[in-house]
Design brief:
Radius of gyration of chain A: 19 Å
Largest interface: A-B, 37 and 37 residues
Family (chains A, B): Belongs to the UPF0342 family.
Pfam family, one (chains A, B): Com_YlbF
Helix content of chain A: over 70%
CATH superfamily of chain A: YheA/YmcA-like
Organism (chains A, B): Marinococcus halophilus
Protein name (chains A, B): UPF0342 protein MHA01_17580
CATH architecture of chain A: Up-down Bundle
Bound molecules: calcium ion
Oligomer: homodimer
InterPro entries (chains A, B): Com_YlbF, YheA/YmcA-like_dom_sf
Chain lengths: 121, 121
């Protein structure tokens, strides 16, 4: 068990030192220091969160909410730093997902094919 | 990036060698080799899966389905090997969750308090 934890801390440290994380941190700090950009991104994330919560509760968002979300998405897409930050977040999310696949390989070998292949067998 | 992958493979290997995983594998193989136990567990998992899918779609399971699920849960609980396997699966799930917390610490430092503390701040 202690060896697992040691290896997890080593991986965590490698992730922190990685180019991918360092770039994310720079972009995140850049947005945090720009009051207008920060407010724009906060608003966008709040609207996204509200839409997700409605979807999870099986509720239909109103036309106004959808229009508002689309407008805010276009705004953040046009903001250079925010759009870079969102791309970098997407990249980190892919990295983490790849790491999880590698780490849980022993369990996948035990229980069968990986999730994404299930329907095709 | 390659260092992250190397560290993830080392962690995966440590997980495979761990007492926790080896015990899970032994119990899993024991059930696989016991036709009656295997059928009992498969039935239980299928009923659980159906109930989960209904819940996710916002549907209410029927009284019969709930009763059936409870009966099957009692059956697998009383089966020594299956109940041990399910306990071991729970333990592995806790291990994986702990590992994920360690690995994603850099991201939590960037984005704020961990999920479980959010409401309390
Ligand atoms: Ca199997
Ligand atoms: Ca922060």
């Amino acid at each position: 068990m202690s060896n697992i934890h040691d290896k997890a801390y080593e991986l965590s440290s490698a992730l922190r030192d990685s180019e991918e994380f360092q770039q994310l941190k720079e972009l995140h700090d850049e947005v945090e220091q720009d009051e207008v950009a920060k407010r724009m991104l906060d608003n966008f994330r709040n609207v996204q969160l509200e839409l997700q919560q409605k979807q999870m509760q099986g509720e239909q968002p109103s036309e106004e909410e959808i229009t508002q979300a689309q407008k805010q998405f276009e705004m953040v897409q046009q903001h250079e730093v925010i759009s870079k930050l969102m791309q970098q977040e997407q990249q980190l999310s892919t990295v983490i997902s790849d790491l999880n696949k590698i780490i849980t390989e022993p369990l996948e070998e035990l229980y069968g094919v990986p999730e994404e292949n299930n329907g095709q067998q």
